[in-house]
Amino acid sequence: MPAELNQKLDELARGEFVERSVNVLAFGLPGTGKTHALCAVGYRLVEVGRSVLFIPAYQLVQDLLAAKRNLELPKALRKLDNFDFLIIDDLGYLPQGTEESEVLFTLTAERYERRSLGITSNLLFSEWDRLFQNPMATAAAIDRVVHHSVILEFSVPSYRTAAAQQRNPDNKNDQKRKEVNRQI
Q1: CA-CA 20 to 30 A from 7: which of 71, 86, 171, 177?
Q2: How far apart are alpha carbons 12 and 8 in whole angstroms?
Q3: What is the pLDDT of residues 119-143, one digit of tens each?
């Protein structure tokens, strides 16, 4: 992992960002360690008495949609507000409809400048229109999460792919042979 990324993670592990309601945004391809890193930060926060919730994005959105249908969205948002650090994992893997986008935007707006969000995503900001459907909502959501944030870029190879190649080094050679055979 790059030294600059390690340094940022060490700083985050001290937990001071939570006092200032700073968001932590982790971007990169699948398998690069985004989730692992934010879980480690969350774990350190719990060790010093902070409240942390880790939740996959799809589950959070479904929970908020259910609360909205039951006319309990404000109550659900207050419950989430009890957590000093809310980690939303894998934002952007699944397409969002209008209702999903609305509850997600409402959550980011409610926590803005009051509580810290942690977000892992494989989508660049330029692709967040897939999440929010509406250009104004997209711009507003990005503006809020970025305003007070630390951005972590995981531009490293997938550790899962590397581990698989180490377990089966012949597989890499087989792939090269298949590519050569296709070209012939």
Answers
A1: 86
A2: 6
A3: 999 988 888 888 887 888 889 989 9
